[in-house]
Amino acid sequence: MAEPPYGIPIGLEPLVARVLAPNPSPFTFTGTQSYLVGTDTLAVIDPGPDDAAHHGALLQAIGARQVTAILITHHHRDHSPGARALAAATGAPIIGAAPFVGEDAATRSDASFDADYRPDRVLADGEAIEGEGWTLEAVATPGHTSNHLAFALRESGALFSGDHVMGWSTSVVSPPDGNMGQYIASLEKLLGRSDRIYYPGHGDIVEAPQRMVRGMLGHRKQREGQILRRLAAGPERIEPLVAGMYAGLDERLLPAARQSVLAHLIDLDARGLVRQEDGVWSSRP
Fold it and tell me: Which SMART domains does its entry note (predicted)?
């Protein structure tokens, strides 16, 4: 198998090019995909990790063109830290997902959280950024993180879906920042849209987005059903639940699987379907 084309700008359509960061892992697939939007003036979406090689590749791809906005889908360390060096090099503002401040940041973040993320401007759902020949509209899609945004390119019908919808795997939903109820609601929100194509943060282009989103909703309903059936047979702690639901999973991914099961349990508890006492989960009568 050929090595992925790290650092090489690849044109996807007249207004969009992609540059892949060299940060492959079990959680990032081949790496984080940064996107350049525009022709003469640019927006850069998710400049990726704090990586000198990727920063240099982005600057080379940008060339003499002006960057007018650096857009961030969410605050994870494989998406937002590169914004600081890019802003310093180009003078462009960092715009997009909200930061975490005060005590909330300490309680809601995890090891993948970019604690230094400080945008110059936060976008609300439906707000747009415009450049020469392009318009990017923020689409609030919380769930993977509480501040997650996608960006819709109005001129072409493309959606930059970040980690909410990826082209290789379902997203990890990790409480307390991740929220399964919000994640499912955001999928249902996308199902009601008519975007032509998705450009995700990781993995292949999603060329049939409605079908993909329906499949992801079905997958989550299947996981929810597994949990309810197991708890109907008797109370369980989360560890045997995860072991039974994810038999044969790569051990490196088990902590993420545990967090997704926990997110489902928290959502089911909020809906009055299960309850927890001293770490033991059971069905509600």
Answer: Lactamase_B
Contacts of 40 (CB under 8 A, 6+ apart): 65, 66, 132, 133
| C-beta separation of 94 from 70 below 8 A | yes
* Residues 6+ away with beta carbon under 8 Å from 281: 231, 235, 236, 237, 238, 241, 265, 274, 275
149-153 and 134-140 as β-strands: parallel, antiparallel, unpaired? antiparallel
198 - beta bridge partners? 159, 206
Contact of 80 with 70, CB cutoff 8 Å: no
Burial 78-101 (b: 16+ CB within 10 A, else e): bbbbbbbbbbeebebbbbbbbbbe
Q: What is the bridge-based pairing of β-strands 66-72 and 41-45?
A: parallel
3-state secondary structure of 205: coil
In angstroms, rounded to a whole number, what is the distance separating the alpha carbons of residues 189 and 115? 29
d(CA 285, CA 274): 9
User: Whole-prediction pTM value?
Assistant: 0.94
CA–CA separation, 283 and 285 (whole Å): 6
pLDDT in 10s for each residue of the chain, 285 residues = 567 899 999 999 999 999 999 999 988 999 999 999 999 999 999 999 999 999 999 999 999 999 999 999 999 999 999 999 999 999 999 999 999 764 454 444 455 889 899 999 999 999 999 999 999 999 999 999 999 999 999 999 999 999 999 988 889 999 999 999 999 999 999 999 999 999 999 999 999 999 999 999 999 999 999 999 999 999 999 999 999 999 888 888 889 899 999 999 999 999 999 999 999 999 998
